[in-house]
Amino acid sequence: MTGRYVLPDNSLPKMPCFVCKKPLSYFPIYNTEAGPSCGRHGTPKKYRNCSFRCEFYEELAKNVLFPCCYKSNGCLEILLPKNVAKHELQCKFQTFTCPFECPDEWKGFAGEILEHTESKHPGDVLTDCCFEVDFINNYNKIKLMPYLDGVYLINYRCSGNEKILLCTVTKLGYEPVDDNMNYKIIFEDSGKQFNHTVYSDLNDTVCINITAVNATLKNPTAVLASIEVFQMEPIKDSDIKNANSGLLRHFECIICMDYMLASIYLCATGHSICDRCKDNVKECPTCKSEILTKRNYNLEGVVSDFEFPCKYEKCSFVGKGAVMKEHQEKCNFIETDCPFKELYGCEMKLLNMDLSGHIYKEHNEHWYDGGSIISCPFSFAEGFTIYEDVFYLKYFSKLFKLNFSFQNSSFRFSIKLIDGYLEESSKYCFVVDVLGTTNCNNRLWYSKNMIDGKQDTKIDLAFIDDLIGEEVNFRMFVQEK
Questions:
Q1: How far is it, in rounded angstroms, from Cα 100 to Cα 118?
Q2: Checking DSSP bridges between strand 5-6 and strand 64-67, what pairing results, if any?
Q3: How many domains does the chain have?
Q4: Which PANTHER family match (predicted)?
């Protein structure tokens, strides 16, 4: 059996990459006359002709557990080299440099970038997601755009001579980008009479033909550009709603008129009823006969192979019976109440797809970035209670609800997947990081796999009382296993 070895801390300074000064845990490793370089950035060009790959080192190091390169920021993970690249890309403790010319060479966590830019570079923030475009001169500009529940870096470069504009929209932070995330750039003349729209995948660069845009906008004197980020639903080529509209009526429950996508029951005469309505009525509304426990297995078999359109307007998803049933429980186009309706009296009606953006903009005190520290006042006095607080965070385009409370000498932390499918939650684990109030190196790091879309964690006060003073400091976040 192959052993695994933890690299001692005191050996790390002896083997850093000469370029980034980080551990040689990111393969491939190359040796140069200036020293070893890691795979985080590749070998500098001037050393490429006189470098060689350290295959012997890689063979020795592949079973060594290295600390995360963000250990000094608080990360406690230790990793095999094969897992380093994925972890560092998503590590909650990674820091980002200021994307603008910053005299103090600012660095901070993902959740701090917008605040820093608004304070130090207010002219570079696109608060309304709109900016004026110069199609004549050559330039390279960077802007920061807060949009819904994220912060995006906009880089647009114009070559007036070649008549092209290159634009890249990148999401900042540690959250991996869903393959279905896209952005569009809408060009308009100053009077907003004409528009020209281009689309691209998020993080990709789109090349825009300036001549084509000018022609569409009728050669305007000024051009305005606005950017929107959105998630595409999977779309199938067939137009099921039109092709099978006659057949689909046979799959409708005679009571609720929804498609019968799960168990189908019969009345004594033979009419079919869905499993939800069976428990709510005593007799068939069509013939007044008794509702039986007998199932319509023949129709259920057809449902399992038949493709249905989603019942929610504007949704283009198409799927077979069981798949559609699951989709409709979490469809982006379901209308829902604001989760803070009872707490704050917010009467907004929202589509599922707009929920996270609404919380981020209207209830930002409950929006949480997993890298930031939550501080709550605390007292060891008998009977002291911290009432439940609620936070929302987004990870890999999935919305999670976090709860925290202190009662009966115990802290309770819980998480629930809000807008994803339950089986997806098995990919994630819930992390609670309790920090010492006087020394952040003293801490409790607790990680537990999510089950059925949720996880509850209880930590007794006696277990962490030495970490708590007049307040309790902690982080909560989601990460992939």
A1: 12
A2: parallel
A3: 4
A4: E3 UBIQUITIN-PROTEIN LIGASE SIAH2, E3 UBIQUITIN-PROTEIN LIGASE SINA-RELATED
The residue from 56, 90, 124 where one domain ends is 90
Q: Which CATH number covers residue 218?
A: 2.60.210.10
Residue 148 and residue 359: Cα distance in Å, rounded?
9
Within 10 angstroms of residue 256's Cβ, the number of other Cβ atoms is 13
- 144 and 154 Cβ atoms separated by less than 8 Å: yes
Q: What is the rounded distance in angstroms from the CA atom of residue 112 to the CA atom of residue 446?
A: 25
Q: Which two tokens stand for residue 151?
A: 């912060």
Residues 82 and 124 grouped into a single domain: no
CB-based contact 328:312 (threshold 8 Å): yes
- β-bridge mates for residue 152, sequence order: 145, 171
Quote the domain boundaries for residue 140: 97-231
Of 71, 87, 74, 53, nearest to 7 by C-alpha is 71
Tens digit of each residue's pLDDT, the chain (481 residues): 455 655 555 555 467 899 999 999 999 999 988 899 999 987 888 888 888 999 999 998 998 889 999 998 888 888 999 999 989 888 888 888 998 988 888 988 888 898 899 999 999 999 888 999 999 999 999 999 988 778 899 999 999 888 899 999 998 887 777 777 889 999 999 888 888 888 888 888 999 999 989 988 988 888 999 998 887 755 444 444 554 566 777 788 888 888 888 888 988 888 888 888 888 888 888 888 888 888 888 888 888 878 888 888 778 888 888 788 888 888 888 888 999 998 889 999 888 888 888 888 889 888 887 667 888 888 877 777 766 788 888 877 788 888 888 888 888 888 888 876 666 777 888 888 888 877 666 888 888 887 766 778 888 888 888 888 888 888 888 877 7
| Exposure letters 357-383 (e unless 16+ CB within 10 A, then b) | bbbbeebeebbbbbbeebeeebeeeee
Question: Which residue is associated with the tokens 């070559």?
Answer: 159
